[in-house]
């Protein structure tokens, strides 16, 4: 092009346009001062749209998966899978779901065994549609957290030395803020956090962080409430509930239970220094190894298990430290094998934007190293409950009553310790004309049980779980009449 022949007014127009565009650009940048991605990641959502997931049933909603860099310097990135609500996604809230462990995957458990729309088929070959998926009622976001869990990674190995509750909450907060940059239409959406098991710690901890950082912030997150299933809440109450439940459900003898009652002080810093107590609690765990602690009355997976009995139960005794022994949250070891074979397929990893389908990532449902090395764990999140209650957040807790890991007794002891006034006393709640469980409303907390459900309630009671989720979102009492 010969510029000498270009009329003068064309230059004027170009200059005016440049002047006009410039202020728009800088004002856009102002929205995201501390959360600008420096890497090559395309900030638009479209490059994470999942289009050809092997074995996926046909659906009429979109879903997205991929990495969000949470800390550029150390190359820490968290993997998420996001399902738009199956109808009217623009009008429905956004819910973040977290599984526990610590060290277990929310994709492997929550998304593909419990409440996501695609459940891993028992033969590992594909996915089957879940008619009780929670994305019927909300836009569902599943996060693999912290780094080292599932597909999430860091390129800085010293990060692993710092893993714990606080680290996890901080990275999850970074994740949410950066995820909003990719999905700006959700920035101001009504937001909830839900989870189970060790996420009983993660969920209130993240809610507290959001609450604290919301204060006058332009990065406000419209957090309205939290929902927790069979949650680890307060170590002393959780332990007392575990041993009392084992005794009352005929897992251990009267004699063992009596020794525990006489010798164990679960509120003490050195509970396990008492040999009588340690031995008696060991006996409880030994009996639980024979069955499925997460679901007392179902069969254990024997086939092809490389471990003995219910292979998924991992117990960590750290007698030298002040920490309580920990038992990992894990459920059906057979299902775990199916998920492992599915997520390690090259075509699946490529479709989920995890790898190029050639250099694969090694996915496993729980990272035992993370579980064993977990150093920073809040002994109790009840003080956070109090803070969130006074901040007006909706708090619902549910409990499958055949779980021995975080049994219904643990949750009752924990909630009782809050000493909240009772608004609606204990009564049954109904689903499809049957008693689903019982519930009680406190000032600030709703507590509900699921009759005959294990640790991961939605696996056992998919339809009534979806019902409870719906009542939670609508802030309505559970139905107390047939
Ligand atoms: C979110 O709400 C804030 C404050 O009301 C507003 O300034 C901002 O534009 C909204 N963001 C989006 C993406 O709608
Ligand atoms: C919010 O920030 C203001 C000013 O920094 C401070 O005075 C106030 O205590 C904060 N509120 C909460 C709940 O943290
Ligand atoms: C057990 O392993 C064998 C051989 O590896 C395999 O053919 C079979 O399908 C496996 N069974 C289950 C239930 O996974
Ligand atoms: C199975 O149990 C036996 C005896 O309790 C033990 O010696 C062995 O190490 C266990 N094997 C595995 C793989 O855990
Ligand atoms: C993947 O990880 C599992 C568990 O950490 C390990 O046993 C296995 O050897 C790893 N596989 C590969 C191919 O690295
Ligand atoms: C599991 O976590 C450890 C650090 O605790 C890490 O070194 C390892 O790479 C992780 N495993 C996988 C498969 O990501």
Tell me the helix content. 25-40%
Q: What structural class should be given to the helix and strand makeup?
A: alpha/beta
The major pleated sheet works out as: 11 strands, mixed
Radius of gyration: 24 Å
Count of distinct strands: 15
| Unreliable residue stretches | 16-40, 307-312, 317-324
Order of helices and strands: HEEEHEEEEHEHEHHHEEHHHHEHEEEHH
What would you call the shape?
globular
Tally of individual helices: 14
Strand content range: 15-25%
Small ligands present = 2-acetamido-2-deoxy-beta-D-glucopyranose
Which keywords apply here?
alpha/beta, 11-stranded mixed sheet, 482 residues, globular, binds 2-acetamido-2-deoxy-beta-D-glucopyranose
Helices and strands, with pairings:
Blueprint: H1 8-30, E1 63-71, E2 76-83, E3 94-98, H2 107-114, E4 118-120, E5 127-129, E6 139-144, E7 153-154, H3 165-182, E8 191-196, H4 199-214, E9 223-229, H5 235-248, H6 254-263, H7 275-290, E10 315-316, E11 326-327, H8 333-343, H9 346-351, H10 368-373, H11 382-390, E12 394-400, H12 408-418, E13 422-431, E14 434-442, E15 445-450, H13 457-460, H14 462-474
Parallel strand pairs: 3-6, 3-8, 8-9, 9-12, 12-15
Antiparallel strand pairs: 1-2, 2-6, 2-7, 4-5, 10-11, 13-14, 14-15
The protein binds 2-acetamido-2-deoxy-beta-D-glucopyranose (6 copies).
Task: Give your account of this protein's structure.
- This is Carboxypeptidase.
- Belongs to the peptidase S10 family.
- GO terms for molecular function: serine-type carboxypeptidase activity.
- With 482 residues, the chain is α/β, with parallel strands linked by helices.
- Helix content is 34%, strand content 18%.
- The chain is built from 14 helices and 15 strands.
- The chain has helices at residues 8-30, 107-114, 165-182, 199-214, 235-248, 254-263, 275-290, 333-343, 346-351, 368-373, 382-390, 408-418, 457-460, 462-474, and strands at 63-71, 76-83, 94-98, 118-120, 127-129, 139-144, 153-154, 191-196, 223-229, 315-316, 326-327, 394-400, 422-431, 434-442, 445-450.
- Strands 1, 2, 3, 6, 7, 8, 9, 12, 13, 14 and 15 form an 11-stranded mixed β-sheet that branches. A two-stranded antiparallel ribbon has the order 4-5.
- Strand 4 and strand 5 form a beta hairpin.
- Helix 3 (165-182) crosses helix 4 (199-214) and helix 4 packs parallel to helix 11 (382-390).
- The longest helix has 23 residues, at 8-30.
- Bound molecules: 2-acetamido-2-deoxy-beta-D-glucopyranose (NAG) (6 copies).
- One 2-acetamido-2-deoxy-beta-D-glucopyranose binds at residues 184, 187-188.
